[in-house]
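Aim 2, interim progress. The first record below pairs a target sequence with its structure tokens.
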Amino acid sequence: MYSRRRSQKRTTIGIASQQAIRARALAVARGDHRPRPDEPKIWFTSMRSLAEVLSDDN
């Protein structure tokens, strides 16, 4: 028997204020900002909101 390794993708999560997230999204939509591959793709407004999403209840 042999085991096959699965390649795992790493997701980067960003924490920023609602205003900063919105400003960044609008800049991307306008073409003023081109996200780098290492920039977060998922954004939260606080560690608490991230913890709520990752909780066992969800």
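The second target in this work package is listed in the same format:
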Amino acid sequence: MNSPETQFPQAPLDPMRGGDALAGVVRAQARMMDALLRQNIETLDFLRKRFELDRQMLADLSRATDPATMISVLSTFWSRAMADYTNEAGTLSSFAAATAGQFIEGLKDEAKALSGGSARTKP
């Protein structure tokens, strides 16, 4: 069984370029975290909107004066909820694909920076 040192050998760092390597790693990490945070913000924004609609449904339901109105409130709520969650699943799938791409590019940039190359500087 290989030790971590032989399985994942460390690229030698040129002390004269150490700042470049560190800057490249930091840029790559920042891009990866940005992609993940954008995905989290999307998720939290969706949940906030859905929770507001949940609260509105409860208010509408509490004002209903007969079973037919209650069924209408619940039917409308569940129909919209299903559509919203279906749409959000598509949005999150797109975000997940983009986030995975950012992680892969970030890892490539980190490896390049640590091996003495220069990482891309685009955000």
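The helical segments are 4-7, 18-63, 67-114. This observation will shape the mutagenesis plan for the next reporting period.
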